[in-house]
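INFO  loader      accepted 1 record
INFO  loader      residues=165
INFO  predictor   begin
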Amino acid sequence: MGFAEKIQSPKDIKHMEGEIPVNYLYTVGIAGERFLRELRDNAKILGIRCSRCKLVHVPPRTYCERCFERLHDWVELASEGTIETFTICYFSANGNRLAEPEIIASVKLNGATAGFIHRIRDTNDRDIRIGMNVEAVLKERGERVGSLLDIAYFRPCRRVGSESY
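INFO  predictor   done
INFO  writer      dumping tokens
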């Protein structure tokens, strides 16, 4: 079958299995660099507020995704937030059953407009719920490398008087 022929049946599709090695370097940009540096060096979680539509982006970006305004108003956010949605993973990415389920959630930090994806620990799959108050658990200073994973995970808030205590 040549390239000009129309495929009439899925049985006619030819494929070849193999691997294509691809190396790439992902750069986080100016906004991402400052965010990760503050997280690594000062254990601070920064967002960036749009002066026009007032969205607070976390992780920060250079332009507002809603109105395309250039962003420059940095704000420090609390390390606490709320679970917007979650999923419970029983299998690893390669299909192996996990010894313990892993909870992955969208966490909206207090003061931020939208959430970002991260792990939830120190709770179990029966107690997790949308709206649960959680707090970031950061790696120790010497273990942080300038990655979103410098936040080791989120856990239910441990404050006295918290509904998640």
